[in-house]
Write the structure tokens for this entry.
Amino acid sequence: QRRQLLNGDWDIREGAAFTEFSRDIHVVQPFDIPSNWVKFRACDYGYGSYSAVVWFTVTPDEQLIVYRELYRKNLLGTELADLLTEMEYDDPYSVAGVLDTACWNRTGMTGPTVGETLLKAGHKLRRADKNRVQGKIQIHEYLKTQPSGRPRIQIFNTCPNLIRELQSIPLDKNNPEDVNTHADDHAYDALRYLIMSRPRMIDPLNRIRDLQREQIYQPVDNIFGY
């Protein structure tokens, strides 16, 4: 109420889980992303509910920038695969990502799962870390303003659904460590998957050193691997 009446900030909602979220701080105008910045995606799939995909890039100082979103209902796995291919057509490199683990479940079906369909279409994906409490804590950490005056995450204003969910998603009244899962949380879940995947800017020199260490290291015990 203080932010609404004193500061005129009517974006904040009573009971909102992320009261630190601010359009002035966390939402930015789109800009041209340098071709050498790492890009990454995360997907929360649904058919009757919304499928939400968010795309990030990682800046050289390890800030995450959400630059694109997809938010659509009634998508089959093949249709989602085609949309991802179309939307990533201009990206200079193949975009890796994480996907809801439920997309590999075979409950009640014998054909290819959504995860298998996306992999077959050429999309690089791995299973997401779905720890809800730790994921929420990480989002709070990324939303905090750093000593530089910027938060660790900012969002292009062309991603209205993610912005709306971060503004309004409420806490779970029975579990204040989590959000209310009955509210719209599809883009939020995709964001949580992505942040829990810990994407980082790749330093080519460090990568070369890592590869050299992998080649040099020889395990003492060939069975246990150490």
